[in-house]
Structures
1.
Amino acid sequence: MPHKQPHKHMFQLPKSAKIRIGLVLALLFTLLAVIGPWLAPYNPNVSLSTTNPLPQPPSSHHWLGTTQVQQDVLSQLLVGGRSTILVSLIAGVIATFLAVGFGVAAGYYGGWLDDLLSMLANIFLVLPALPLLIVIFGFLSKSANPNDVLIGVVISITGWAFGARVLRAQTLSMRNRDYVTSARIIGERSWRIMAFEILPNLVPIVATSFLFTVIYGVGAYTALSFLGVISVAHWSWGTMLYWAQSAQAAQQVHIEWWWFLPPGLAVGLFGTSLALLNFGIDEFINPRLRAAGLSRRTARLAGLPRRVPLGLTPVAKSPAVSTSGQR
Amino acid sequence: MRLIVRRLTLYLLTAIVAITVNFFIPRLMPGNPVEAAIGHMQSQVTPATIKALDLQYGINTKVGLAGQYFHYWGQLFHGNLGISFSAYPATVTSVIRAALPWTIGLVGMATIISFVAGTLVGIAAAWRRGSWLDNVLPAMTFFQAAPYFFVAILMVALFATKLGWFPQNSGYDTTTLNPGLNWPFISDVIDHAILPALTIVVGSIAGWIIGMRNMMLTTMDEDYVLIAQAKGLSRRRVITYAARNAILPSVSGFSLAIGFVVSGSLLTEIVFSYPGIGYVLLQAIGSEDYPLLQGIFLVITFAVLAANLIADFVYSFLDPRTRQEA
């Protein structure tokens, strides 16, 4: 049986089905954001027919049908995907930077800085984010048509607090570990200790907090454009739902499902793909959760007792895992 | 008590921050909101109203910023949130007061149902780990990741339009019924509330299930639970021991969830044209009714803070450790 090189473990696809599905979906959506607008068969703004008074169901000309004013739904979906995903990624990246900066600094320095930053994070946690964003964009959209970067930045301001709190707690538990203390005694600078001694140990938590804020960003952006606070002429999945809702597509006798189903499913699936990745990271951090993923059949095949609700966390490798290890 | 005092300080600070942010946003943004407002008002606007608006938004006024800020606080303490542009001459307070009971009733009921049902399912999912329930969880996350209002649109399309089981919109049958404490009205209100409430439950339950399941799995490995089983206690008693301890993070995590649930409910209301705060919010956005938008922001913030305080009281009741004087 040929043994593979040890370093190949680094490049192996993760074994959990959740991570695999999540990863594939997330990459597909990212690809869509990049090439979507070029694939769009029509201009999403253009009325393609003046004779039809009603939205047309999917046909060979319009794979996802048309809207009330005969715009192509598929084109709107492809064009709107870029804005939706871009805004949520921008919001996620900036919020994660804020969370890491504030969380690690608060946990490492302690004292008044910790008190101040923790208070700030707690305030942002209880402050209802969506109403605040609505007020901000209500005034902002009045004077300027916000672009994707600006929207992402504003959303990130309301999304960093949860990550900061978790990272602070974890930093606090590492502050006095031996290797951190020795780095301090050697005379390393504080920023170096934080960046090179502490931060590498926080990578899974940073990843979780990034995924969370991207999910939050999609939700917030979609909600804001659904409400019409952000210009409804700027195509995103939220604006598609805005137009479908204002035409009461779900209330018509013949439900115009092709109008609201694609953008809603797209938002949901994008969020789900990130949540699945998150599940995977959670199970990586906490093996108890991973063991819970063993189905009864796998548990039996692995020779574990069938009913073990208590006292034993079956972390034994399941057969599926061990066979792939021998490949 | 220490927990309550500490949380109370936090909520007080949050309220002050919210009020201050609310004051500064219109001043930091470019443009003149008053001009837009007057264009939207249908009836005659008195010079006194314009003067009040100018002061509210700090335009064409000789009063300094500090003076404006104190004036704003004074108005707040009198319960005066300004005049609604779209419902002129009605005040923001009266518009919100009419809509608030609908939202509180809907969100309150749905949240309680979601929390109780989600916690129970979470306990079952942890106890029977590896069963089919584990496979349902990833599917549940879709409903958590999908926007509430999309779930609401699906509900309307399926249960109201297609199957005709429930009314499509509004809070009660406005054409034939008069609001009051009579059975036809109450039953009609319940009939109209089921679908929106179901939407909120479907959208929020996955969070409670997963949180409870994960905490329960950790608690089930504790020695005292193992001993409880080793002593031969009934399975029911053992589960209760574990669940009672596992539920604490769910209660303290309430503060994170409630903001999301309230925001989601506002969007749900819009889909159902439910006569609550969310519907008013949509109209305020459509007519650029800034005082109403800002009033809604403050009222929602206070409501969320109040809900948090209740959760904290429950928490300190459930967990004796927090009641200890240190």
Note: Chain A has 14 helices and no strands.
2.
Amino acid sequence: MKISFKINGYQYSKEVSANMSLVTFLRDVLDLTGTKHACDGGECGACTILLDGIPVNACLILAPAIRNREVITIEGLAENGELHPLQKSFAENSALQCGYCGSGMLLTAKAFLEKSPDPTREEVKKALSGNLCRCTGYVGIVDSVLAAAKDIQGEVL
Amino acid sequence: MIEQDIKYLVPSNIEEAVEFCSQFGKSARFIAGGTEVVPMITHGRLKQTYLIELSRLEQLLEIKQHERCHNIGAAVTLSELQHSPLIKMYWTALAEASASIREPQVRNLGTIGGNLALGVPSADLVPPLLTYDAMIGLVGLKGRRWISLEEFLIGPYKTALQSDELVVEIKLSKPECRLGSAFMKLTKFGGSGLSIATVAVALSTEDDRITDARLAIGSAGPVPLRVAAAEAFLVGKQPSLEVLSHAGRLASEAADPRDGSIRASPIHRRRVLIPLASRAITLAAERASDQTTGATL
């Protein structure tokens, strides 16, 4: 079926198939390989994208389900060449080692901070509970989200 | 990815969804949140050729407030139930059970209808809904019918759904006395995994005495069920330690866990039901008495 949808601000009109999950469609058809593909069961969060602003696992959605909706992938997080405060903060705090979980972590954190701009450490951990990291551990990641929250709040003030 | 040629059908309303379903029969199945169906496709295990999308049907997406009841559309997500002020206030155990399922991203997709329609013995929304005497609204070729959740659940992975029917809404009637309710769940790693056992309790109290008691257990047998013996025992009592542990034992005795589960042995499931039930009763009683002393809602 042919559908229209938006990804990272760009309008697309494409033939899609229900044989394909969104993560495969993004990576193999649209060449947006920043979204990572791992467990295919919604357990690891590596493929997290924002669908109309809500974090969901792209491995649990079929490509036709994004018709007339807006998807944000990691490629859409920086704006006009300027890194998002979360991206800066992850880099400054060395939050990532291999980086495989990073795309999902960042997008989950972005949606979370929009809802909870001034979170506690516990709230951050809970918000990221659907994203697994297998190398650095979570301390640097949680620190980064808290630092980014302060940074974003500073900008607003 | 396995080569299959799956056709994706987008109905414009419930009636059209039913028509698609009767037209394609066994080669069609409904898809709502997709958390069950999409992995089947990815792993090449989907038997059907046609998928009928339900997740965007407006009629299924609302939580409606009526004077005597609240109707929850079948495609309302677990996240919405978890965060809805209405659900948290009136149907606390349902909000807690929704929050206990899987990861946040999965809860943003998974739906209440999906949790019920598959008839999974460990479906976490079932015990709270049983304590609320939930009615399930089904629509098929012959139109709409209502069935109690107890009658809806026939056995493991078996429901009263006819082949042309889908779950469209869940009706929760407001009880005469406000209920305090609570949901308790044990999982293997204390995280968001599948349940080892669950208990939902809904109570009304008067001067700390229980006047109405509903208790249901889940993941503890072929289907989640109400425990009439524990309910009858609790009425008229104060939730003292002895009362709690006896009610817990009654809940445990009602369990019929299967052998050979990879999650837990029958003896473990029976044993953990005792503290789970005691804790759920305690919390539900606290909530019930808070409501009577607090502002009326």
Note: Residues 85-156 of chain A form a domain with the DNA polymerase; domain 1 fold (CATH 1.10.150.120).
